[in-house]
Design goal:
The complex is a heterodimer of chains A (312) and B (277).
Chain A (H helix, E strand, L loop, with lengths): L1 H27 L5 H6 L5 H11 L5 H12 L14 H36 L4 H14 L3 H15 L15 H35 L2 H8 L4 H39 L4 H10 L3 H29 L5
Helix pairs in contact in A: 1-12, 5-6, 5-8, 5-10, 6-8, 7-8, 7-10, 8-10, 9-10, 10-11, 10-12, 11-12
Chain B lengths: L6 H22 L32 H36 L4 H14 L3 H12 L3 H28 L2 H8 L4 H38 L10 H9 L7 H27 L12
The chains are: A mainly alpha (312), B mainly alpha (277).
């Protein structure tokens, strides 16, 4: 297990480094010299050269990369060429907002998918179980931002029960913070819950056909009791894999949902950065998001091994 | 190509058919010019020649939906085409040399690309080159390559252990001939299913990108941007969000159902390989 963990950690580190090279190389293609862009068309060559030295963009690309990538671990994402403010703290401020959004969405998805999927599996022969399957198929076809717009229409426009957008920090007003996050959480969670329901259903169905479950039933446990004691851990193995993939999807979904609800998260920061042509900011946010996806995959792989000792 | 018609196949086929018909029809006829700005028709109510009404610029919603279907399918076809043309050969090579360094390299790079969602690629491309339909198609296509490569590899691995491939190798056929004569025809059905599922994902990605302003540029109509433009009018004119939203959902549901249906309809021998989402 230790050896496996070390091996997976090495792969994770290599992947993040490779992703760093890819992101840096890609952004280095950006036409135009940041120093020239910052100073405008009337700048003297001397001023441009001086600013280039200040930015460090006169150095070889490899040195620039090592400088940038080396700083990442310590939270140093460089200083923006456009706003002259450090990128790291901006990302730090937004990271928490996006994390709360994504984890809340995931919680909603799980709260929907685990009971509904289990129910649909246990009752797979009756119409209600089939109806759940059909509803989840339809839910998959609705993107998170569309769900968001529909939810705003129902809960903000019609019922006027919840705000249609905006974000109040937790420290300012916990109640308003929660009210503002309910619709974004639901937008992300309902759709992912629909997807996840299908996987929970098929995982539970697979487990229900196993001999050990029949044995548990024969020994006198009820259908749900047997599932609870013996089935859910086994059913969770494939579900965890999907969950990991979905977390990555949620992260991207959050970028769009932040736009729908005007939430100041990483997605908002990224899109503003692109609009302002803030190279280092875009580079930094993309790197954080990609590293998060890689980290999630790592955690999924490790969890997978913990849940299923047969894989060890 | 033997199999039974099933409900998923028929429903999915019908929904996709509606979208394709709308797109094709839009080349020869739309009720109005979908890009014609007409202040007199601003937020025209449904009816009076404007079946679904008009938007804040007086553009006919129904005409915009028809041309939007064209945009959606165009992006989907090119993106899935890029993914299939790059991913399939890579997956087949990896599947035919499962223990070679080349296979290892392909699958590692594949995993890396997998960490870059279409949206991030499109935003990066947009930051460098300026976002338009082309950058959206490339971003969606490249991010879909790993799904094709994985499925093609898994299917190729199954084909490579069959007796007929063994016989072909014994008869002295080279890897190129085995790939084109035995592997590709036998993994075709799996790839068709993958294409359908990927198409649904491409539609979602295109809609999200247009919604964010990283897709098709105005004035070319696209469903995602119609939704984005409708958002500020949600309180007064919610129907402007309803129609493009419905169009996206119908198209995605159609391609997903079509994929499920095709899986059951086509070669049941390879049914165990699931399409990647």
């Amino acid at each position: 297990m230790i050896l496996y963990l070390l091996k997976r950690l090495a792969v994770l580190a290599a992947s993040i480094a490779a992703a760093g090279v890819a992101v840096f190389a890609f952004m280095a293609l950006l036409p135009g010299d940041p120093a020239e862009v910052a100073l405008g068309v009337n700048a003297t060559p001397e001023a441009v050269a001086a600013l280039r030295t200040q930015f460090g963009t006169d150095r070889p690309a490899a040195a620039q990369f090592l400088d940038w990538f080396g700083g990442l671990a310590g939270g140093d994402f460089g200083v923006s060429y456009v706003t002259s403010s450090p990128v790291g703290p901006q990302i730090g401020d937004r990271l928490g907002v996006t994390a709360v959004l994504v984890l809340g969405g995931m919680a909603v998805a799980l709260l929907i998918a685990v009971p509904l999927g289990t129910f649909a599996a246990v009752h797979h022969r009756n119409p209600l179980g089939a109806a759940i399957s059909a509803a989840s198929q339809a839910g998959i076809a609705v993107p998170a931002f569309l769900a968001g717009i529909l939810l705003v229409y129902v809960f903000a426009v019609k019922a006027q029960a919840l705000p249609s957008g905006g974000y109040v920090p937790l420290a300012d007003d916990p109640a308003e913070w929660l009210r503002g996050l309910v619709l974004p959480w639901l937008s992300l969670g309902l759709v992912q819950g629909a997807v996840l329901t299908r996987y929970v259903r098929s995982a539970v169905l697979d487990v229900m056909r196993e001999d050990y479950l029949r044995t548990a039933r024969a020994k006198g446990r009820g259908a749900l009791g047997a599932l609870w004691r013996h089935g859910l851990r086994n059913a969770s193995v494939p579900v965890v894999t999907v969950l990991g993939l979905q977390l990555a999807t949620l992260l991207v979904g959050a970028v769009v949902v932040e736009r729908v609800f005007v939430i100041p998260g990483l997605g908002d920061l990224l899109l503003n950065g692109v609009a302002a042509r803030d190279l280092l900011l875009v580079q930094g946010v993309v790197m954080v998001l990609v590293a998060a996806v890689l980290l999630i995959n790592f955690v999924v792989d490790v969890t997978y091994h913990l849940l299923d000792p047969r894989l060890r | 190509m033997t199999g039974r018609m099933n409900a998923s196949l028929l429903t999915g086929g019908a929904l996709v058919g509606v979208v394709v018909l709308a797109a094709l029809a839009s080349f020869v006829w739309t009720p109005h010019d979908p890009t014609l700005v007409d202040a007199a028709r601003k937020l025209h109510e449904p009816g009076g020649g404007y079946l679904l009404g008009a938007d804040k610029f007086g553009r006919d919603t129904f005409s915009q939906l028809m041309v939007g279907a064209r945009t959606t399918l165009y992006v989907g076809v090119v993106a899935v085409g890029i993914a299939a043309l790059l991913g399939t050969p890579l997956g087949v090579i990896a599947g035919m040399t499962p223990r070679g360094w080349l296979s290892e390299l392909i699958m590692r790079v594949n995993d890396l690309v997998f960490a870059f969602p279409a949206l991030l690629l499109a935003v990066m491309l947009g930051a460098v080159y300026g976002a338009d339909t082309l950058t959206a198609m490339i971003a969606i296509g490249v991010s879909t390559v790993p799904a094709f490569a994985r499925v093609a590899r898994a299917a190729t691995l199954q084909v490579m252990v069959t007796d007929y491939v063994l016989a072909a190798r014994a008869a002295g056929r080279g890897p190129g001939a085995i790939a084109t004569r035995h592997v590709l025809p036998n993994i075709g059905s799996v790839l068709i299913v993958q294409a359908s599922v990927s198409f649904a994902i491409a539609i979602l990605a295109e809609a999200a990108l247009s919604f964010l302003g990283f897709g098709t540029r105005p004035p070319t109509p696209s469903w995602g941007r119609m939704l984005q433009e409708s958002q500020e009018l949600l309180f007064s004119t919610p129907r402007l969000a309803l129609w493009p939203g419905l169009a996206i959902a119908v198209a995605v549901l159609g391609f997903n159902l079509l994929g499920d249906g095709l899986r059951d309809f086509l070669d049941p021998k390879l049914r165990r390989i699931r399409a990647e989402r």
